[in-house]
Design a protein that fits this description.
Layout: E1 4-6, H1 13-16, H2 25-41, H3 43-53, H4 65-71, H5 77-95, E2 103-107, E3 110-118, E4 121-125, H6 134-146, E5 151-155, H7 166-175, E6 180-181, H8 185-194, E7 204-206, H9 211-220, E8 225-226, E9 234-239, H10 245-256, E10 263-269, H11 272-290, H12 296-304, E11 307-311, H13 314-324, E12 328-332, H14 336-342, E13 348-351, H15 357-362, E14 388-396, H16 398-414, H17 418-429
Parallel strand pairs: 1-11, 4-5, 4-7, 5-6, 7-8, 9-10, 9-12, 10-11, 12-13
Antiparallel strand pairs: 2-3, 3-14
Helix pairs in contact: 2-3, 2-8, 2-9, 4-7, 5-6, 5-7, 6-7, 8-9, 10-11, 16-17
């Protein structure tokens, strides 16, 4: 069911660890047309796409106050308690990330600092579809609030009766988000980027989505900042001969159920005979757990994208992890902390047998909006930094400019930029 590779050559790793990404040519024209239509026709286009894609005729793009008021009764007390506890943990971790601006006098009379300010307006996209992700409302909304973003608008697809999932609404309400639009897919991204008669354009767009949403984010990113280009969800689980395979298999499957194009990779650190036995036992455990789970229409295709790799060498283990740069890295083995110290490329790391990946997805406090498709080699997941800007400030006295002036003039003239040099000279010539 899942292919197995023992000690693959380093030259083969890039191919072996490649993602099975879908061809986007079939969505390119559709997304471009949607963005152009929303740009030119605004709300009219949004109502059209709600009817076309969501099979609903809307009379208002915004969730009403009445809908907000009614959502409470549709959410169980148990789920409300769980959401509030997750919110608390996420708040604590993100509040700890709030930076303080630096101040430094680099030379006498030259004072430098950085001012921390929040982004003024953000749009949070929350997918609907097979599993409305109210947890993503927490992961995006809480840090936006902690960072003191003034204007937050949440976009999510409506259901066929024109409503929004009540748990999504309850979570937004709990955070303090009161602007929710019933707009999904590429049309939501276009509306947030360009604005319409009733929707103000935002400064930055956050949130995961399908290929249409991802491609739309890519297209609008030249005019509106985005969090990241997110692909299918993925996990790499690293084990050894002492690992509880039930735990490992559960993490492997938890990501596989996200979608048909999700990917899970098992990495075994053990000698050849132990690795072969672990591989066989692991597959048996996967099959056993599969029989107890729903969403097999997503799990089975996803497992076709998955792989099992084994090595008996610690350094090769690190190379394999860093080459893959997983969104989620589960280190469920004896050398977990040693591996964690050496790994450079991962979206989020889970250490030990009880640090299940789903803890990070929901309630431990870290953010689950993470780089996929190898982007962990160069970017981080969503954090407070995603919602703030850092503006440099300098204050220079006359004596400070007198001291530094010759250096500036020499460098400006070295680049043949006489106006730059002149801006210093005229100040130093002034009595």
């Amino acid at each position: 069911m899942i292919p197995y590779y023992y000690k693959p050559k380093e030259t083969d790793l890039e191919t072996l660890l490649s993602r099975e990404l879908s061809d986007d040519f079939d969505v390119e024209k559709s997304v471009k047309d949607i963005i152009l239509n929303v740009k030119e026709n605004g709300d009219k286009a949004l109502y059209h796409y709600a009817e076309k894609f969501d099979n609903v005729v809307l009379d208002n793009l915004y969730v009403s106050e009445e809908e907000f008021n009614n959502c409470d009764s549709k959410v169980s007390d148990e789920l409300k308690t769980a959401i509030k506890r997750a919110k608390s943990n996420i708040e604590k971790f993100h509040e700890a990330q709030l930076p303080k601006g630096e101040f430094l006098e680099v030379e006498a009379g030259i004072q430098l600092s950085r001012k921390i300010v929040s982004i003024n307006s953000v749009g949070l996209y929350i997918p609907g579809g097979t599993a409305p992700l109210f947890s993503t409302v927490l992961m995006l909304g809480v840090p936006a609030k902690v960072a003191n973003v003034k204007n937050i608008i949440l976009a999510t697809p409506p259901t066929k009766d024109g409503s929004v999932n009540p748990v999504v609404l309850y979570t937004a309400k709990t955070i303090g988000i009161n602007k929710v639009i019933k707009v999904g897919g590429a049309s939501a991204i276009a509306a947030l980027s360009y604005g319409t008669e009733t929707i103000k354009k935002v400064d930055k767009i956050f949130g995961p989505g399908n290929r249409f949403v991802s491609y739309a984010k890519m297209l609008v990113s030249s005019r509106t900042s985005i969090d990241m280009l997110a692909g299918p969800s993925e996990v790499m689980v690293v084990i050894d001969k002492n690992t509880n395979l039930r735990f490992a298999a559960s993490d492997f499957l938890s990501q596989a159920e996200h979608g048909r194009d999700s990917q899970s990779v098992l990495l075994i650190l053990a000698n050849e005979s132990d690795s072969f036995k672990l591989k066989n036992d692991f597959i048996k455990e996967i099959e056993r757990q599969l029989n107890q789970l729903d969403r097999k229409e997503y799990l089975l295709p996803s497992l076709n994208n998955s792989k099992i790799i084994a090595t008996d060498n610690f350094d090769d283990c690190i190379k394999i992890i860093d080459n893959y740069a997983p969104e989620h890295l589960v280190l469920n083995l004896e050398l977990a902390k040693d591996i964690c110290k050496e790994v450079s490329n991962a979206g989020s790391i889970f250490i030990g047998p009880y640090a299940c990946e789903s803890a990070g997805d929901y309630a431990s406090g870290t953010n689950h909006t993470l780089p996929t498709s190898g982007w962990a080699k160069s970017v981080s997941g969503v954090s407070i930094d995603s919602f703030i800007k850092k503006i440099t400030i300098q204050e220079i006295s006359r004596s400070g400019l007198q001291s530094l002036g010759k250096t500036i003039i020499t460098m400006a003239e070295g680049e043949s930029l006489s106006a730059h040099a002149n801006s210093v000279k005229i100040r130093l010539e002034e009595n």
